[in-house]
């Protein structure tokens, strides 16, 4: 905490301070974590109020909702970055490639093919995280851990720009072991970016090496 600062404390300033402290504890460079403000279900004016505090990176989990909220915002704020963090249907690949700057939910061969085709058509390469079903939960999205080597080889063969791994650990369990496992898998595959950590556990995630945290309710209030 900067004791000379007389700027008011806001949810965003608190999250930024917590991230900075966690980076320091972990011996990581200051500013090495990207904070993605997850604005799903939140109105445009709530997004603009974070933009007013200098937050430029946002995330949504539905193509349709992002398409309603973000094109107008992007015209006003050309530096905005929009990340897709939710399950993506293959038939929305074209729209997703047009709308988003990064996709965190690449998790199956059919979607990989659809995204590769969409990127070729659009002449636009959108960086992707491969989502891993890190807790091996039946109902959850994400590539199975056992399938990961083959899936990563497939997406590379398709020419998709894969930058790292993403996961959502099981609810109500200590998340640190799952974050550590995701970090280990990324290392084994030579990937250096990690999308992990949400409102309840982003500080833990940063200490374990998250390069991208996805924080919604701690910034915008409960949904
Ligand atoms: C909603 C969502 C988040 C943010 O969750 P909070 O607990 O509100 O911070 C992060 N990641 C994904 C994939 C989400 O769907």
From TrEMBL:
Cofactor requirements of the protein: pyridoxal 5'-phosphate
Residues annotated as domain Alanine racemase N-terminal: 12-222
InterPro entries: Ala_racemase_N, PLP-binding_barrel, PyrdxlP_homeostasis
Modified residues (N6-(pyridoxal phosphate)lysine): 40
One Pfam family this sequence matches: Ala_racemase_N
GO MF entries: pyridoxal phosphate binding
Keyword list, A-Z: Pyridoxal phosphate
Domain of life: Bacteria
Functional note: Pyridoxal 5'-phosphate (PLP)-binding protein, which is involved in PLP homeostasis.
Family that this chain belongs to: Belongs to the pyridoxal phosphate-binding protein YggS/PROSC family.
Protein name: Pyridoxal phosphate homeostasis protein
Species whose genome carries this gene: Sphingomonas ursincola
Lineage: Bacteria, Pseudomonadati, Pseudomonadota, Alphaproteobacteria, Sphingomonadales
């Amino acid at each position: 905490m900067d004791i000379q600062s007389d700027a008011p404390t806001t949810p965003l300033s608190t999250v930024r301070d917590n991230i900075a402290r966690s980076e320091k504890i972990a011996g990581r460079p200051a500013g090495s974590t990207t904070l993605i403000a997850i604005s799903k279900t939140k109105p445009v004016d709530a997004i603009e109020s974070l933009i007013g505090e200098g937050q430029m990176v946002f995330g949504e989990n539905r193509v349709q909702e992002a398409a309603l909220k973000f094109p107008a915002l992007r015209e006003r704020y050309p530096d905005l970055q929009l990340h897709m963090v939710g399950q993506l249907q293959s038939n929305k690949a074209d729209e997703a490639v047009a709308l988003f700057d990064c996709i965190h939910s690449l998790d199956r061969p059919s979607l990989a093919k659809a995204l590769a085709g969409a990127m070729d058509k659009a002449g636009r390469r959108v960086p992707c995280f491969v989502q891993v079903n890190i807790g091996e939960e039946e109902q959850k999205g994400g590539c199975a851990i056992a399938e990961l080597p083959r899936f990563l080889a497939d997406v590379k063969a398709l020419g998709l720009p894969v930058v790292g791994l993403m996961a959502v650990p099981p609810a109500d369990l200590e998340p640190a072991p799952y974050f550590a496992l995701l970090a280990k898998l990324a290392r084994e595959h030579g990937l250096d970016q990690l999308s992990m950590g949400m409102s309840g556990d982003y500080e833990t995630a940063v200490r374990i090496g998250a390069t991208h945290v996805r924080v919604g309710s701690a910034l915008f209030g409960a949904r």
